[in-house]
UniProtKB/TrEMBL annotation:
It is found in: Cell membrane; Membrane. It is a multi-pass membrane protein. InterPro entries: TM_pro_TauE-like, TSUP/Inactive_protease-like. The keyword Iron does not apply. Belongs to the 4-toluene sulfonate uptake permease (TSUP) (TC 2.A.102) family. PANTHER family: MEMBRANE TRANSPORTER PROTEIN MJ0441-RELATED (PTHR43701), MEMBRANE TRANSPORTER PROTEIN YJNA-RELATED (PTHR43701:SF2). Its main location: membrane. This is Probable membrane transporter protein. It comes from the Bacteria. It comes from Caldicellulosiruptor morganii.
Amino acid sequence: MIEVLLVSAIAGFVGSLLGIGGGLIVIPFLSIVFKLNMHQAAAAGLVSVIATSSGAASAYVKDGLTHLRIGMFLQLATVIGGVLGAILSGFLPAKILSVIFGILLLYNSLLMIKNRNSDEKYKDCSEENLSYAKWTQILGLYGSYYDRISNREITYRAQNTFWGFLMMIFAGLLSGLLGIGSGIFKVLALDTIMKLPFKVSTATSNFMMGVTALASISIYLARGDIVYDTCGAVAAGVLVGSLTGAKVMPYIKSKYLKIAFAIVLIYTSFEMIKKGLF
């Protein structure tokens, strides 16, 4: 189980930095190396997401990076989308959707690399000079955090609230239809559409993922897909990795985090396209 611990620690570290959970690393490793079936590997992947969220989210909330109100607001959209995905899974052509969204992810990855320095626009923001949209004001979708690299308080507000909510419904829909994690879509909705600082996006995504995974894992538990010794090792490794990532992340420049996230996007997009074509 030493190998599982080490790989899980890496998964937790990467997942906490990018807000995507550890499933992208843990699931392929367990299915290929340890020959677990996909249901058992997916269950362990959910455990890794819960552990990542538990480890990283607490640290990010303490640091003021997680915006709880935005997270709960968008979580509602994810649940709506997930229910729709489950209902429509027998009717919509999942393979075609997989190819289309894989191409969209690839486009977004290139866009993220191009705009890797976009967080600089927040450097001169202050509470006095921010204008709030109606729903941003009503729902309280704004906040601030202290950036340790620039040594300044960064104030932000959510933009395009409707489109961000719609993106999260679509993310939940695709998650239910294609059996993929929604961490990537959460970060895209928060960063690309709602224009939040990338560190706030990843921290809030970490918080949201744990809620989603906790609801899903009960199904695997009822089916007997939990391999307890493996899941225990995954949880321990991921927890250590995610806590380490949460300590390191405030000291990493956002542009480097965006480049790393874009690389994960490119990998995921090719996997979705391959899944749709073959």
